[in-house]
Amino acid sequence: MEATLFYVLGGMLVLSALALAAVGLRKPEFPGSRGALALVFLWFAGLVGATTTFAVLNAAQEQRDREAETAAEASTTEATSTAPAAPSAGRATTLKLTAAESQIAYQQTKLDATAGSVTIDFDNPSTLTHDVCIEDPGGSEVGCSDTISQGKTSLSEDLDAGSYTFYCSVDGHRDAGMEGTLTVK
């Protein structure tokens, strides 16, 4: 309501000023009497006073609205940040996996982990590039490490209990037998 009145009164003030200027330019004797001058003065004083009052009320309302919006956002953020984290299905497990130095193969073909955060530390001493990827029981890729040669990398994923497949995604390596089973309990 304050905003509407502010804009209406502000518009009336502008139109009155334009009308006064137009009349004053056309009639040099305007406003004529002291009574007319007093009325013009009172008219503008009333408009300026009312416009200023509603400008202040409008600004105060906008400030309250902004504060309420900020408080609502803060409470939403606080509720999100203080909400308990989803319990981990288990503890963190770190597994070691090594590529064979002179074959397209992993040295381990079976790995076991506990449900939760599973990290595979992958060591590739070979000059051939390899990586390690995990496929879930449904056949969808869960994640892959960087492809490396003569180096080490790791892959970390949150895994539920189940039977996963780990494999090398370099063209032809999985077909050559570079895969294994990751059992998560």
H/I helix tally: 2
**CATH first level of the largest domain:** Mainly Beta
Indicate the proportion of strand residues: 25-35%
Question: H/E order of the elements?
Answer: HHEEEEEEEE
Across the major sheet, the strand order is 2-8-7-4-5
Approximate shape? rod-shaped
Helical proportion, percent range: 40-55%
Fold-level CATH name of the largest domain:
Immunoglobulin-like
Structural class determined from secondary elements? alpha/beta
Count of discrete domains:
2
Calculate the mean pLDDT score and round it: 88
What's the alpha carbon Rg, rounded to whole Å?
Answer: 38 Å
What does this structure look like?
The chain has 185 residues and is of the alpha/beta class. The chain has two domains: 2-82, no CATH class; 93-184, Immunoglobulin-like (Sandwich). Helices cover 40% and strands 25% of the residues. The protein contains two helices and eight strands. It has helices at residues 2-26, 34-82, and strands spanning 93-98, 110-113, 116-124, 133-135, 141-144, 151-159, 162-167, 179-184. It has a five-stranded mixed sheet, with no helix packed on it. The chain has a three-stranded mixed sheet with strand order 1-3-6, with no helix packed on it. Helix 1 (2-26) runs antiparallel to helix 2 (34-82). The longest helix has 49 residues, at 34-82. The protein starts with a helix and ends with a strand. Residues 79-89 have low confidence and may be disordered.
